[in-house]
Amino acid sequence: MAFGTSRRQYSKYLRILALVSLAPVAITPLVAQAQTSGDNSRVEYVFKRGDTLIDLAQKYMRKRSDYVAVQRLNRIANPRFIPVGKTVLIPFRLLKYRPSEASLSAFRGNVSIARGGRPITPARGIEIAEGSRLATAAGSFLTLQLEDGSRISMPSNSKMRIMRLRHILLTDSVDYELAVDSGRMRSKVTPFDKKEDRYRVRTPVAVSAVRGTDYRTRVDEGTGTAYSETVEGAVDVASGDSLEGANIVSVPAGTGAAATVTGDLAKADLLTPPELIDPAKVQSEETLEFAVTPREAASGHRILISSDAGFVDIVAEQLVNGTSISLPSIEDGRYFAKATAIGQDGFEGMPASYSFKRQLSTLSGSAGTGDFGYRFKWSGAGKGKRVYRFQLLLGDTKAIPIVDEAGLTQDAITLSDLPDGEYFWRVGVTQYSSDPEDKEVFQKWTDFEKLTVAG
Asked: Staple partner for 132: which of 115, 270, 274, 276, CB 3.0–4.6 Å?
């Protein structure tokens, strides 16, 4: 024990020493995380007349003393006297910013949003801030609108975090960073007009830099591989968590990159858009049915259904291994379908978009004997006025109908005294839309049914 030091003072000294020795263990992960998320990127600033490094720090840096770090980085002798026109590098992490804005422009199904551990009730138009976590369950979708007009869409079974949503004051530029933890995300990014604008997407194994593009990100649930697929524009993709490493590739439109958990990075050409068979037909059955022209290069197909051409309000989605795609029933209306082919290499190909009309109009019939002859009945589902037409033919489906009753509003007709013979019959429906602005009339027939009458 040191001379003049009491036992109580010595115990206090030991406690302080213990805390100091433990401190690096507690703070090291936070420092590493800050460096990783910032990517150590720098902004170029050209000095103007009247500028000083100290004044610049006071206006645009987080702390006035940050000018020292900039001075050291740029080897500036006197921070008060810098030549006009000199370019100075300033780390992004030092710059002041204001929070940028994002809003929930569309959502369907089971969507969860949380910030700071507190859940937020989804509602169209609500603000989504930096630090928010978003997730979609099966059959659920959401779309965010960013301040600069960019859109972020999350389909089913996806999780995302908003890591940065900022507007940098010095450069009047945006700084967006998103993290896809699982599932998929589509980024429709407004073209940037400043070189300092940043939009980055992270996955557990890769990071990409986007500048005005239509771009998809997907994390494979089984392998952990992160797929980056560019539909428009170009994207830079790097494995790991930094874009400053050597393992970086450019991914222009029509190509994709895959980053594995082992750090491998490979590029591939995306399959051309698939061709739907009769895509404009009215979808009148209980389920939506689409068929794709087969080709050997495709292992499967995905289709998205949206109420708008920009695919902001997605209402349904399906992924199949083959070429026949069925989706659950949706409300009547005008819709858009976006189809993509899945390659044998796992990449999702270029999209083809189609418009179609959905008008539920099912129809089926039956025939049997009754007290007064042969009774033909039919039934079906669909909104709006429905008018029926019944036809009965003798001997052949190409014969002239011997009975042709139109304008029927009932669901049955009885015919008596039918002579022996082989008959064919069918019923048709003319359906008017329940939407007063939709003047189109839809018609369909059942297949011919055979009826044999024998004495």
From this structure: 115
Strand partners, 237: 208, 249
Which architecture, in CATH terms, is 97-269? Sandwich (2.60)
Packing angle between helix 67-74 and helix 53-60, nearest 10 degrees? Answer: 130
**Residue 245, both tokens:** 């490493």
pTM score, whole prediction: 0.82
Q: What's the pLDDT tens digit per position in 89-141?
A: 999 899 999 999 899 999 999 999 999 999 999 999 999 999 999 999 999 99
> In terms of CATH architecture, what is 288-358?
Sandwich (2.60)
Check: CB of residue 60 under 8 Å from CB of residue 170.
Answer: yes
For residues 382-394, give the mean pLDDT. Answer: 96
Domain 364-453 in CATH 2.60.120.330? The answer is: no
Per-residue 3-state assignment (H helix, E strand, C coil) for 333-374: EEEEEEEEEEECCCCECCCEEEEEEECCCCCEEEEEEECCEE
Topology of domain 39-95 in CATH is Membrane-bound Lytic Murein Transglycosylase D; Chain A (3.10.350)
pLDDT at 24 over 70: no
